[in-house]
Specification:
The structure is a single chain. This protein is mostly helical. Helices cover about 70% and strands about 0% of the residues. The protein has 14 helices and no strands. The protein has helices at about 5-10, 20-30, 50-75, 90-115, 115-145, 160-180, 185-200, 210-230, 240-260, 260-270, 280-300, 300-320, 330-345, 350-360. It is globular, with a radius of gyration of 25 Å.
Amino acid sequence: MLDARTLGQAVSDGIITADQEQRILALAATRPAFDPEGPQEQFRVIRDFNDVFISVGVALVAAAVRYLLSFLSALIWDPASGGTMASPVMRELVEAVAGGALFWLLAELLVPRRRSALTGLVLLLVIIGFLISPLAAALHGFTTWAFSPGAPASEFAWNSDTFASIHAFGLLSALFFLRFRLPIALGLFAACASLALLSAVGGDPDAGWSFRVSTTLIGLVILVAAIAMDVRDRMRLTWRSDAAFWLHAVSAPYIVMGVVGPQALHIATTSAEAFDVTTLQWALLVISLILLALIALALDRRSLILSSIMAWGVVLYGVFGSAQGGWADSIAQILLVLGIAILLLGSFWYPVRRSIFHATRWLPVWAWLAPVQPASGQR
């Protein structure tokens, strides 16, 4: 199959002209033709075992640095060790900033050079581990000073300790993505930012319809952002394709939660009691799952439908599992339903996608989507 690199080499060798190269690329971009080696939904977190090897090394160094910083802090500032007195808050802040800065520097050395998603993720989590506590405290203090909020009404309130940590996690993930273009960092930021937005706009699970509308809109916005990235990289050659993978995975649970309502978040966090789902909600759930499945098939995105099915698992547990005393009485039935759905979709993914393409190939939207594999390319 011809690609941009091959065509560029053909121009250099004088086989074709630069104008012909551009015309061929323009034609390839507008044709939804079958491609036996079509773009795949790759899970590019681990490229080889060396990624695991280096990531383990990062984790071991992080554990050692955490211990050494505590030791040096006590040596310098603990009067019992001959050091100078310092407040515990100041000591923790210095340790956090020193550790975070050290591993950010290590990320500057490793991430651009290796382009390893796993190594980048481990470094991001290490940096967050060092900085999240003081950053969350600083953000909480700033919002208290700027908006003078009262005590949080519930664990889901935007000014609660839990959401202060979520804000900090999201901010660090955003900075890491902006610097290194690590796709999974964008997914983490989307998840944190959407939770923060949900709490800020009245998304408390006890808020009823405001929760439903806010959650559904958040899910749809993330889904549209993921589709936009897919459209810009239909051949799945750049970081946008990997970023879309994670955004799709984040979007579907919000849409499902919006249909079910506030009790879905309760069952996912507290598992207090079983909840009832009305006939209308069941109908909307089925319709939403079918629509998400069609979108996933059109985009060739299994991550979207997989996260939808997993969100359905939470709903099934809330309706059937919790009422009978928890997972023990219903785990087999729930796992059986989810497993059969995933097996069927995985086994017939390409044939179903080809059928949808043949039935709707007249639609111009296919020119923007990932090419469809022919039967000869089925895996």
